[in-house]
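task queued by scheduler; priority normal; single chain, no ligands, no partner chains; default sampling; output format set to C-alpha cells
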Amino acid sequence: RKLMRMFGAKVVLTPKEAKGMGMYQKAVELATENGWFLASQFETKANADIHASTTAQEILGDFNGHNLDYFVTGYGTGGTVTGVGRELRKARPNTKIILTEPDNAALIASGIEQERTSDGAPALSHSAFQPHLIQGWTPDFIPLVLQETIDQKLFDENIPISGPEGIEWSIQLAQKEGIFTGISGGASFGVAIKVAQAAEGGSVILAMLPDTGERYLSTMLFESIETEMDEEELSLMRSTPGFQLVDEP
C-alpha cells in the first residue's frame, strides 16, 4: 500500500470476506460513479493480445535456434498464459505449457464453470475458491481472459502448489541465487522444479517469475525474516573489538 501511495495512487480497501469479487465490484462502482476509466483487465482482449505481441515474441526470440521443452506459469488475469500460449501453440507446438494454481484454490482443476454476466464479467465467486497465500494469483473467479486458455486447451498440464511452498522457494531463490521474487514467482519456480524432476535429462524449462519481492515486505513472505540481530550475528559483532553496540541501561 505504501509503495502504491508513494506513486500517487489512492488505495481503497474492501472487506476481506468479500474477496476478489468485492474489490472488482467496488472498482466498477467507483468508475461508474466518478466517470473514471476502468481497465477491465480481467475481460479485455487487449490483455492477452499484448502478451502475444510482446512477452511471447521475447520468448521466441530468446529461444530462437534452441530447444524449449516446457513453459511454466501461474495466472492472475490469465493474460500471460493466454497470450503466450497462443503464440507457442503456433510457433512451438512441441513446447508443453504447464499451468499452475494454488492447491487450495484449484478453480481450473475443479472443472466447475464460472458463472458470468452478459458482458463476460464474473457474476459471483467461484465455488472452488479458498483464500490462499499466493498473492497476485487466482482471484475468486475465472477471468474471461483465462477462459480462452481453458476453451482452446492452451495448456498441457495443471500442477498445483501450496502457498507455503511458494514462500519457501521465494526465500531459496533470494538466498541462493540472488533472485528477489514474490510469492507467485517462488510458486512458479517450485512447479518448474517439479517438472524438472519428472522430465527427461537435458530438458529446457522456462518459468515465468513476474514480480519482485519488494512488493511483499508486509506479507507472510517476510514473516520469518527478523530485523534485529540473532545470536549468530551478535556473536559476530562481538568477535572483533571495535564498533560494538552497547545495550541501553
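post-processing summary
- Residues 2 and 11 are 9 Å apart (CA to CA).
- DSSP finds nine helices and four strands in the chain.
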